[in-house]
Amino acid sequence: MSAQASVNAFMTPNPEDHHLSRPDARDLQELEGPDYLVDQEEVLFMQVFVEEVGIWMDSMDAKKHFSRQLPFHALKEPMLLNAFLASGARHLALVNKRYSQDRALKYYDKATKHLLDALQDPNRDTVLCATTAVILNVYEIMGERALQRMNHIAGARALIKECGWNARSSGIGAACFWLNVGMELLSCLHFNWQVAWDPDDWGIDMNLEPETESGREELWTHRIVYIVAKVCNFRASIPRDEEAAKQSAQARYVKWIGLTEFADRWNTCIPRTMHPMAYLYPGQTLSGSCFPEVWLIKRASIVARLFYHTCMCLLAQINPLQNSQSPEMHQMLTEHSQLICGISAHVKDRGVASVALRSLHIAAECLTRRDAQEEVLTIVDKIRTETGWRVGFINDELKEKWGWNNQEQQPVQAPPQQQQQQQQAPAPQIQPQRRMYPMMNPLAGVDFNNAQHPYQEHYIPPNVNIMQQQDLLQQHGVASHHQQAPNNAYSYY
């Protein structure tokens, strides 16, 4: 077979040879794109995105839109393609000093220009614009100073709302919604912010009954995200004034009981596949870890359990009537923090790194043993090496919490008997109020209906009729697309 014949074997047939085609005129434009990537640099950056970035973006999406479906559609959409390439190049520059951030910035600027130009067209593809903004949002949060580059962080949220996406959405709408609120939640956990998009407005089905069907782990993951968001809002609403906190303690305790029972109910009803496949005590592990080895099989199950144990750690810290030094709360905090550390210490799936980092940061604050503290720092360093994320501040904050910065010299390893005494000693009380930050959630009030909306000089409201047509395509057109689309028309909605 000749080289040309080999190439032709990968190419789709001439669209004129197909008798069935999608009636949407935009499909004719799709045919103008390449059938596959041929540029060496683009191939590399797309591979990096799919294998390293897309995997965690899809951690709550059963259909894996970002890593398995959208890259094919990007072949026909320069805006989407450049967003993918920017994120892949950004990741590569973070983990490998041989690669410059300049290449990532080039693709980022191209994708941004495409998006801003599209936002001035009332007949634009609103789904494409929102999806591109979500990916550019991911690009922006990869750096340590993400809040200083807010070009698309707020824009992605506004475009998602413009599309009407929420927990009831399906397809790419659901993928973008859950990725977006998931990233916001992780930031709120760190900065002690209120979640800007009220969880009660998400539209999620929270009828918690014992699971009888298989393959619905992602649904239960979405449900624990909702519960953690509720706990996050409860924590952020704790009065800073001590007298006000005392006066509202009983009322807040009733809410605390409700949230705790909600989380317990979730853990009772989830399918067996979301519980550990195996559990080894620290002395049984081959790794010699200070923490138990907790083996969970599916990525969504790992993410869900990390969120669940994080939820229980937070609840143990913010009981309005008992502090974390009380026997009951101390046991609750210790148990769940150990499980978070155990999952994070032994997990091999890099697709859970974003949740593992935030959960580990919260769980590790109560550790008192030096060897356990050092192992946590090692885990954070491992994640930093693999992802390139600038998360050195986590180690700094943990060292400060543990009191390392107040010691002139690092203490030597305690003898076994003393280690046991330290492990049994009450954990220091954790005061969530100290985690307060003066800055409010930057996503609060983000909406194109507000005067200070994103993309100020570029945004023009979309044509209502066009949006309705795209909604119909997304809701009812998937099956017909599979039946009628020519071979080179990728299903997007």
From TrEMBL:
It is found in: Nucleus. InterPro entries: Fun_TF. Keywords: Nucleus. Residues 1-22, 408-430, 473-493 are annotated as: Disordered. It comes from the Eukaryota. Its main location: nucleus. Residues 1-11, 481-493 have a biased composition (Polar residues). Pfam families: Fungal_trans_2. PANTHER family: TRANSCRIPTIONAL ACTIVATOR PROTEIN UGA3, ZN(2)-C6 FUNGAL-TYPE DOMAIN-CONTAINING PROTEIN. This is C6 zinc finger domain-containing protein. It comes from Paraconiothyrium brasiliense.
